[in-house]
Design a protein that fits this description.
The chain is α+β, with helices and mostly antiparallel strands. The chain has one domain: Cyclic Phosphodiesterase, Chain: A (Alpha-Beta Complex), CATH 3.90.1140. The protein has 3 helices and 8 strands, in the order E-H-E-E-H-E-E-H-E-E-E. The chain has helices spanning 17-30, 57-68, 98-113, and strands at 6-14, 35-36, 43-53, 75-83, 87-95, 126-131, 153-162, 165-175. Strands 3-1-7-8 form a 4-stranded antiparallel sheet. The radius of gyration is 16 Å and the shape is globular. It starts with 5 loop residues before the first strand and ends with a strand.
């Protein structure tokens, strides 16, 4: 990557394979009226940085590594289904607040580096499952996921916009807990 190149970056919790499989099966059965988010794009965003100079990638990865120290034991419990004006998502309860604390630590570090500005609303653990132009107003049954979703790692991703939708590439993964 050239130093003057720009990348769309975000940091996210990676989901266990059985959780991804359960969401994919549920998507195909319950969701319609838009474009399903593919299995490789299912994640819980910690911070979306947007378009940033490629030279900042090592700083972002360092911030994620630092924030992940001591961040083990994250447990998310499926709460519900929700639609916004352009996406549908599965929302989660953050048992013990550990995922929220990780997101906060990461966002503070990224802000201190000058590469991120927090949103005005509180962080919400969620997985985007459907993108649409016209809101489908669905009320699907919830997927049968494990009682607790336990992410074991987080990663910095590059998001490349393609004709068929965004394509995500994990460029650095870190184990939660250090």
């Amino acid at each position: 990557m050239a130093g003057d190149e720009h990348l769309r970056l975000f940091c996210a919790l990676c989901l266990p394979g059985d959780v991804v499989d359960g969401i994919v099966e549920w998507q195909s059965r319950e969701l319609r009226g838009g474009r399903l988010v593919p299995p490789g794009n299912l994640h819980v965003t910690l911070a979306f940085l947007g378009r940033r100079p490629a030279a900042e990638l090592p700083l972002v990865a360092g911030a994620l590594r630092e924030a992940a120290v001591g961040a083990g034991g994250l447990r998310l419990r499926l709460r519900g289904y929700r639609e916004t004006r352009s996406v549908a998502m599965l929302t989660f309860e953050d048992e013990g607040g550990r995922a929220t604390a990780l997101a906060e630590r990461l966002q503070v570090r990224l802000e201190a580096l000058g590469v991120y500005r927090r949103e005005g609303r509180p962080w919400l653990p969620h997985v985007t499952v459907l993108r649409f132009r016209d809101r489908p107003h669905l009320s699907p049954a919830l997927p049968g996921l494990p009682a607790e979703v336990v992410p074991s790692d987080a990663a910095v991703f590059i998001s490349r916009l393609r004709r068929g939708g965004a394509e995500y590439e994990s460029v650095e993964a870190v184990a939660l807990g250090g």
